[in-house]
From TrEMBL:
SUPFAM superfamilies: S-adenosyl-L-methionine-dependent methyltransferases. Gene3D superfamilies: Vaccinia Virus protein VP39 (3.40.50.150). Residues 40-136 form the Methyltransferase domain. This is Methyltransferase domain-containing protein. It comes from Leptolinea tardivitalis. It holds the Pfam family Methyltransf_25.
Length: 187
């Protein structure tokens, strides 16, 4: 099994604990400026909690593409998302999956960047920015200091990739610790 792939226990415990904090996800996703007609790329869909909520927000004019490096996590996403015509699931590295540059109005990233090896993180962020159409949004929430990730890193990467900061919100919960959510717009 590759290092990306979770064990059965990890999948079980993530889904079990996740079932107690659906409000944590729902309140966040309900607060986002999603109209429903966008192409949304969800990067690192994992257990699919966000995917399910995002898929319910999009109309027939919109589309949700979930990308995950792990085939096992993507199988979990598949089970919880109604994979109708408006949802596509893609497994692989972001630079290998068939998503055209400048095709997405929203790139959604929730608790993923801190999991990416530091030496790959900038390339991942840059590739995600390329997928975004001009005027499109990167919507990002990550824990403040895990795996070498920091909000300052995100701000720096955004500036380097031609994004302007629309909002930045700091939160803290007992189960996630400190975290910051950002919305960046591609100029
Ligand atoms: C902590 S989980 C978060 C899942 C989900 N976004 C959430 O908030 O519940 C991180 C997810 O990112 C995926 N991931 C990690 N590195 C990745 C990469 N380089 N490309 C795509 N997905 C990646 C993992 O396989 C895992 O599904």
């Amino acid at each position: 099994m590759s290092t990306f792939e979770p064990t059965n226990f990890r999948i079980f415990i993530t889904r079990f604990l996740g079932s107690f904090i659906t409000d944590f996800y729902k309140e966040y996703i309900d607060s986002l400026p999603i109209k429903g007609n966008e192409n949304i790329l969800e990067f690192g869909s994992g257990s699919g909690v966000c995917s399910r909520m995002l898929s319910k927000k999009i109309s027939q004019q919109g589309h949700l593409t979930c990308v995950d490096i792990s085939s096992r996590w993507l199988d979990v996403t598949r089970k919880v998302v109604d994979e109708v015509s408006k949802v596509t699931l893609l497994q692989g590295a972001i630079w290998d999956v068939p998503v055209s540059d400048e095709s997405q109005q929203i790139v959604f990233i929730h608790f993923v960047l801190h999991d990416i090896p530091p030496e790959e993180r900038s390339r991942v962020f840059q590739t995600l920015c390329c997928k975004l159409a001009p005027g499109g949004l990167i919507i990002l929430r990550e824990p403040d200091s895990r795996g070498g990730y920091s909000p300052e890193w995100a701000k720096m990467q955004a500036a380097e990739n031609g994004l302007e900061e629309i909002s930045s919100t700091h939160q803290r919960t007992w189960y996630t610790g400190d975290m910051t959510s950002f919305i960046f717009r591609k100029t």
